[in-house]
Each structure stands twice: as C-alpha cells, then as structure tokens.
C-alpha cells in the first residue's frame, strides 16, 4: 500500500471527499492540516526552503553545478516536492505530489465500485460530481469585501440553489442512490457539499426530503459514520 499524506487547511472544504474515500476504502493516510495563518508562508517559502536545503552544502562555483546528472536530480526533486500549482489540497503518494481534489478522488476510486460499476455509471458519477462542483465553485469563498460576499452568497443560496435542488431531486427520483444500485463517490460529494450549504442556509433542504434521506444514508455507512464522529469539528 503506498504511503499517503494529504495536505489541506483545517477544514472539510475540498479535501473532505478525499477523506471520505480513504475512510470508506479503509486506507491509512496522514491527514496533515495547516493553519490558514501559516499558508502564505508555506506557499511562498516552499520552493525557496527546498532549494536552500538541497544547495546548502554546495557553493555556487562548485563543480556540481556543471554536472548534468546533479542538475537533473535537483529538477526532478523540485518537481516532485513543490506544490504544483500553489493550491491545496495536494496528496503525496510515496513522495509524488498529486493536485486537484476531484482528480485525486478519481485516482483513489479507480477500479472500485465507488467510481460506478460500468463505464456509463462512472460517467454519470463524474457528471454529478461536476454538477455539484460547478455550483460550489460559484461561491466567492475568498472574497475580502464582506458586503459583496454576503450578497453573492445570498443570491446563490436563495435564487440559484432551488433550481439545482429541483434537478437533483428529479435525478434521484425514487432511487436509493444517485447512480446504479449502490453508493458512489457522487453520493459522498452530495453529502459533503450539502453539509456546507446547510451551514450557510439551515432550511435549504426543508422541501427536499429525498435529498435529506440520501444524506442520512451516506452518513449511516459505518466507515463514514466513524469518520464523521472522529473528524475535527470545523465550520466549513
Ligand atoms: N479545483 C481545485 C481548487 C483548489 C483551490 O482553489 N484550493 C484553495 C483552497 S479551497 C487554495 O489553495 N487556496 C489558497 C490559495 O489560492 O492561495 C481543487 O479542487 O483542488
């Protein structure tokens, strides 16, 4: 089993889908959480510190800098150990860094029923995740002006969300899970996204009992229930 280290803020956010998948598949990993206050330094210092570490024993006129294999080694090391696009979450797999939460989720669910049992189901699960993600990505999470942020959040939660919920309810119909006849990571993603939406608007699902039931079913899966019980309690 590879060595996994997940790096993200101390929140559910975009890392939670990865944590659900690890929990469900019973895969051990390090859940490395960084404080938001430390992030600017981590982001800007990452390259610099690593370079210093690698180059410290050398002086700049050292012959090592004319030695192609050494330069190649440094390049490879840097590619493997720096944040590829300066964004988190990232997942370190045996020392190699993967980025983009949903790509990581697809990687971890590959060849498991969580991805969907057929190519068609896998496409449906991907599409549903992307649909949810499209909506979650509309929120200006990092907006500094509180008034602008409130207005946009309000508009999305009161005017846009009802359309999405209506479509999700129709898509679910009277099925047990969104896709096929067993749980997929799309059901996980629904639970994760709706948990955050309910923090922002507690009555959001009042007129969508089937979508609430689906949340309860995901949360009742033993491995997920255990994770929800033990995870750090954060607002988002
Ligand atoms: N689509 C990417 C989004 C990554 C992303 O925007 N991460 C945010 C936190 S949710 C981040 O790294 N923010 C810090 C920054 O941009 O400096 C994913 O799903 O992984």
Automatic annotation (TrEMBL):
It catalyses: RX + glutathione = an S-substituted glutathione + a halide anion + H(+). One of its GO terms (biological process) is glutathione metabolic process. The keyword Transferase applies. Keywords: Transferase. The keyword Transferase applies. PROSITE patterns: GST_CTER (PS50405), GST_NTER (PS50404). Its EC number is 2.5.1.18. Residues 118-236 form the GST C-terminal domain. This is glutathione transferase. It comes from Fukomys damarensis. The lineage of its organism: Eukaryota, Metazoa, Chordata, Craniata, Vertebrata.
